[in-house]
Amino acid sequence: MITVFGEGRGFRVVWLLEEMGLPYRLRPVDLLAGVENDPEYLAINPAGFIPALQDGDATLVESIAIMEYLIARYGPTPLAPAAHDPAFPAYQQFLHLGEAGLAASMYFVVVSRNLAPEAERRNWGALKALEVFESRLRLVTRQLARAPYMAGEIFTAADISVTYALEFAQRAGGYTLNEAQRAYIARTSGRDAYRRAMDTCQATKAWAAAAMAS
To answer: How far apart (Å, rounded) are the C-alpha atoms in residues 136 and 97?
Structure first.
């Protein structure tokens, strides 16, 4: 049985598993309670961040690496174009941009906004991180002017990656997306597998509901 540890970016992994129809279980990791109080999880990932995945003897961390592992191990799948497919370059770019360019940058904006002392919330690092996020977001904007999805005409795992980042920016960062970006999220989040993933990830579902209400 595939085990996913933790929500957060683990939502990407659960969503992918639902899209691929693979059996799994979600094991919660409560970072607010303190991961130091969860020795079972620290044995899986001593760095203490989420998500992690166990699949037999394989243990992985980093959501994009986990997604690539699952696709390679249990594919082929239309969620990942083959290397000779004309859609592959865009797929590969946006699969990684969703974390390296978007979510990782927005993380530093979010922690500054929510955890820093009031006088330090718009510090140089947070402003630079927001600048990086917005520059990478321009690549998403350009792609959406060309096609409905990140790799072109069909939904792929790259859309799971980017959708999570954009929703994170909205929910945690208070970032206002433009009309095309909101329409894109409506397309991707309208999928049955997304809804099933949300039903599994109850903490994520509650966070999304709270963000919509605020």
So the answer is: 8
Using one digit for the tens of pLDDT, what is the confidence trace for 47-103? 999 999 999 999 999 999 999 999 999 999 999 999 999 999 999 999 999 999 999
Burial status of residue 56 (CB atoms within 10 A of its CB: 0-12, 13-18, 19 or more) = exposed
Nearest to 12 by CA among 213, 206, 200: 200
Q: Are residues 140 and 188 in the same domain?
A: yes
The CATH number of residue 157's host domain is: 1.20.1050.10
Domain carrying residue 64: 2-74
Both tokens assigned to 135: 């520059």
The token duo for 184 is 């894109």
115 burial class (0-12, 13-18, 19+ CB within 10 angstroms)?
exposed
Note whether residue 79 is domain-resident: no
One DSSP character per residue, 111-168 reads: HHHHHS-GGGTT-HHHHHHHHHHHHHHHHHHHHHHH-SBTTBSS--HHHHHHHHHHHH
